[in-house]
Amino acid sequence: MPTRRTFLKCIAGLGASSILWCNAMVPKTAISLLTGATNKEQRWIKNPEAKLSFVVVSDIHIARSGAVRNFSALLDDNFNSKPDAMVVVGDLGDGLPRDYKTLSDELAGHKLEINYPIYWTIGNHEFYGGFYKYGLWSPKTFPNGETEAIAIDRFLKLADREKVYGDVWINEYHFIFLGSEQSRMSDMANNDLAFLTDTQLAWFQAVLNYKKQPHKPIFVFLHQPLPYKTLGGLQQNYVVQSKKLTDILEQHPEVILFNGHTHYELDYSNMVSEASFTIVNSSSLASPIDRHRRPIINSAPGLTVEVLNDKVIIKGRNFLGPDWIGSTEITVPES
């Protein structure tokens, strides 16, 4: 049975913003250290010992004011650091064809710089085309001839997938993407919640066990967050099938789940879960807000992730700086 002393030995001497995989740990995620100061070393230089490095951003909302600037800054920063992959955790735009064109044009403009794969998850705003009529905001006439099939098809063409969920292996690490298959177009009660069908959940449960290595992290991405406790309080639930999904995840403490949707800033007290698996908030690249829902100006936050032999290092980064965001240190037990 791990003792407090062995736990403290595991967390001692680590830098800010890291998730440590360590022998003899306490039996659930432990929050250990906050560093409030911004890292003065602005350039992201990959650790040469990293087995895997990737970027996670969410809520890029490409049609919003300043969003193209923020996305371009992200791609420029990635070009300098050369990650193995990037994941965008939903809300690419507002579900309109013009949003996808803007995003595709921006990707094409950086084509020579993007030498890594980009993976996408679907968000609630991918279904927002139903609020527009002839390209203008018209909620009174919702859904304006839009259907979920049309909305999902637009997303899948960009994501180059057959379903809103799927998985890939990158440098022998498992990446799993989940996504809502229904919206308020099916049922107004769905609102902006993620709706995961029984088929998707059964697939997820099966794929988690495929080539499973208990001491190796599995990275899962879903736009909407589950309910969970933080030092700052309770994170609201945004998943219809949250109980079923949580029951699956609790069987896999090796999972690190990345969410977006809330736009909340990357801060110590609210981005770390007390669940048996790890949940990480990835904020919003386009329009981050503080816990009082006030906009944070001149910030394009996201996460950098590096996997080493015994730990996963996650850092908050302002890609518009570019500079580092003082964040958290998290320790995660082996299963």
Structural class, by secondary structure, is alpha/beta
Regarding CATH, which class?
Alpha Beta
Cα gyration radius (Å): 19 Å
Average the pLDDT over all residues and give the rounded result: 84
Number of domain units = 1
For this structure, what is the CATH homologous superfamily? Metallo-dependent phosphatases
CATH topology assignment = Purple Acid Phosphatase, chain A, domain 2
Uncertain segments:
1-40
Strand element count: 18
Order of helices and strands: HEEEHEHEEEHEEHEEEHEEEEEE
Largest sheet: 9 strands, mixed
So what's the overall shape?
globular
CATH architecture: 4-Layer Sandwich
- Ends apart, CA distance between termini: 13 Å
Task: Tell me the strand percentage band.
Answer: 15-25%
Instruction: Supply the number of helical segments.
Output: 6
Q: Considering DSSP H and I runs of 4 or more, what fraction of the residues is helical? A: 10-25%
